[in-house]
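Case study B.
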Amino acid sequence: MPDSGISLPRDVCKMPDRAFLYLAITLLVINCLTLGLRWRMAGKRKRKSGGERRGIHHRNRYADNPPDFAQLASLYPSFEPYVFYSRDGCPRIDWTDFNATRELTRVLLLHDHGVNWWIPDGQLCPTVPNRLNYIHWIEDLLALDILPATRAEGDITTGFDIGTGANCIYPLLGSSVLGWKFVGSDITDIAIEWANKNVDSNPHLSNLIEIRRAGMGHGVGKSENNPILSSEGGVQLSNPGAENVGFLASSVLETEWNAKKYYDGPPVLLGSVKDGEHFDFCMCNPPFFETMEEAGLNPKTSCGGTPAEMVCSGGEHAFIKRIIEDSVTLKDRFRWYSSMVGRKLNLNILVSELWKVGATVVKTTEFVQGRTSRWGLAWSFLPVSRKISSSQKVEENNLSFMLEGLQRQHGAFHVLQYVESYLSSNGASSKLDAAAFNVDITISRNQINTILKPETCDLSNSSNNNHGEVDSLPFCLHCSTTNLALFISMFSLIFRRFLIDHSIRNDEHKLSIPKSTSLSASRATWRVSIGRF
Ligand SMILES: C[S@@+](CC[C@H](N)C(=O)[O-])C[C@H]1O[C@@H](n2cnc3c(N)ncnc32)[C@H](O)[C@@H]1O
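Model:
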């Protein structure tokens, strides 16, 4: 009997042929079903852990048509020596060979985008399909109508690429694929020289792209009055969120944040943006690492990358934090600020920092690049329109409300963290998603009853002083039952506790509650999520 890979009980071997055949088929079917189930579960697990997991952007031209190495080799003799055929007959290249990856990028840019391009040995070599994902995500952000338009219709979309590199990839792709204008900044001579060469070799794009040395005393924040640069030229260490820490002092995020180092390199946006300039967006593929060892240079690929491109003091966290600080000064000079982020932990920390500094909207996405993931982080300070989409309007279990009377230093994020910890301490399962800016709560009727018990509800100690400016925060409540009134009572109580705990006079606070909700459901457990809209 050939080795089927399935071991059978010994007496099965004595069975008559037909019985054995049935058994073998049954085992095979069970095996297939199990495999299928595992496969489906793996798929589900992936989506569950990755949230809105994204691969290649649906508008990315390589989404349905990955680069055809054989065709490229037949069309471009310079690429041909790098292509070999594996045993299964598939054309491949050696991803650990820098010359091969550089030649692939060159021919892809030429063949698919009509772009002439080159970089010197060792400079960071971009993977065209990956870089296109970020461009298309920016396109998605610009199409969102939650922010007011900041330029006249018909004006060309204009972006700022922080750290454009010798490869100048984002301006070249953004201008050739979407006709956008770009300013690309960098700090090294080699990047400035080669980015300019790459622009000059494409006369059809050169009027769309300007290469600029960062921090050369342009406009806002020029060296002599740059509010961020200290007299020693280092970065002034603002204690992040100092006035906002409050009850969060011990939270994990804060601890992580405070443990981080600070960027002390050349200016980033301040000093690079000229007086009167406005941009639709900025983008950045930052130096991700603190050391070249950390960069670890993936042994499975060779995309080059010099220390100047890969490394900065404090790593990506510090660099992006610096972009955030600059954006706080530049505010609506950019419609959207954005950056790539290499680590999920940093993404969460940066999202929470953005809410603290007053961003009006924060968006994130995941870019799946082969076996690694990167994240996109975008934010704005423009007023967000409170338009409720038609799908939200028909959902009867969605409720929007305002929490008024908060002091301005208590951001909506603080309120959500308070809700999370308050409910957790009362036994409910409560999970804050910093990126999505909401808290998911699973709570039982008994737990709600305990929270609403008169002794728990004693809110009489409310004679605190109110100081500072007051503000109001819009929230949205999504509830898996129609029993909103119960939740509103509970949240009203939690918010009142928050205000009391933070020395805000009780009578200043107001929670608008709809009149027509009824208390009827008898389910044991509900799911509710509260977030900012
Ligand atoms: C990871 S590389 C990105 C290059 C290119 N944008 C890409 O995606 O391949 C980071 C770039 O940021 C540049 N850089 C570092 N500090 C900078 C600063 N303060 N302002 C502008 N660019 C900076 C580096 O020289 C480097 O070219």
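The mean pLDDT is 72. The remaining cases will be described in the next quarterly update.
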